[in-house]
């Protein structure tokens, strides 16, 4: 095992604490602390303009934080060694590929700049993703450019892969192919992936951790399992007085009909069942929510 | 081999666990059969490899699958008594009963409705 591999097996891939970022007098990011470990696939969710791109760029050291710090494999992001940078793959939201070049020319160039290069994978992906090696990049569609940028980011087998809205211009089939490739890539040890998207249903299969950015703050940093287990729908028969409802901890939403109703609860645990039974409720059933529903309720967007 | 849906409210690992159990109970997977590797399953279904591992670990802990060094996961020789097809159908029956109640139907009507439905299927 090389020293590099050993280094990345221990400890964290990426870490940030109390990160703050100001841009022209405006606070874009505020008090962000987070950790990424090898094996993590993190989904970064947030509305347009919530600061997703700024967060990814700051984590990778493309800009200076106004306060706090962030590091990748223990090296401060803005002062990363070239060795460290070689282990990172980044796909920006808008492609920054040279329009006059062809993919073939670009591969030739990259191969010289990158100590590691998985030529087999490139040869396999180009036809599979229906990309031309000889077409000038400026003649490619947005989706094709995005796919090419992803191939380039994967080709040097980075241990940290950061993708900013990677599927925005991909059609459903290309999206599926991309995620299949991404999950195959995630199977190797030591690799970590962070990607931003506003398509929640994509995240459900792919990620093990969700970050949610709201107004520049991390409003959610939880594992997917934790979200599924702690945000639930409770259906019941019976009636709940307003005072009883108010007393229910973590009540996100409630609805009633003639015989009973349903509650959406945060911080659920099996032990809370008794408290509900003590309220005089019957036929209590607890069921899970889709990730999309969980987010709508957590962010209060599903109130009538 | 498996059908994994996002957006259903059932976590992916749970879907995988349930489907393997159903296939074992129903005989589609026989004792000694190999399951796809974590990598294969994660790649073809585009799901997180940790999710697949988690499902396999749970199935191993419950005695449905066995793990052997350097080999694929295998269906165990003896599946526990509780996992009979009848027992496994129960949650689905429960949800039919619940839906019927919500629709204001009498529970006693259910056997007839089921029979009518099955006749139509033929």
Domain count of chain A, please report it: 2
Largest interface: A-B, 29 and 22 residues
Query: Helical proportion of chain A?
Result: 25-40%
Strand content of chain A: 25-35%
Largest sheet of chain B: 2 strands, antiparallel
CATH superfamily of the largest domain in chain B: Winged helix-like DNA-binding domain superfamily/Winged helix DNA-binding domain
- The number of helical elements of chain A comes to 12
CATH architecture of the largest domain in chain A: 3-Layer(aba) Sandwich
The low-confidence parts of chain A are 1-9
Rg of chain B is 17 Å
Question: Which helices and strands occur, and which strands form pairs?
Answer:
The complex is a heterodimer of chains A (304) and B (122).
Chain A: H1 3-9, E1 14-23, E2 26-36, E3 41-45, H2 52-59, E4 67-72, E5 75-76, H3 82-86, E6 88-91, H4 103-113, H5 119-128, H6 142-155, E7 160-164, H7 172-186, E8 192-197, H8 200-206, E9 209-214, E10 217-223, H9 224-230, E11 232-237, H10 242-247, E12 251-256, E13 260-265, H11 272-278, E14 282-288, H12 291-298
Parallel strand pairs in A: 3-8, 3-9, 6-7, 7-8
Antiparallel strand pairs in A: 1-2, 1-4, 4-5, 9-10, 11-13, 11-14, 12-13
Chain B: H1 12-25, H2 38-45, H3 49-61, E1 65-66, E2 74-75, H4 85-102, H5 110-121
Antiparallel strand pairs in B: 1-2
Helix pairs in contact in B: 1-3, 2-3
Tags for this model:
heterodimer, A: 304 residues, alpha/beta, Rossmann fold, 2 domains, six-stranded mixed β-sheet, four-stranded antiparallel β-sheet, 12 helices, 14 strands, disordered N terminus, B: 122 residues, mainly alpha, Arc Repressor Mutant, subunit A, two-stranded antiparallel ribbon, 5 helices, 2 strands
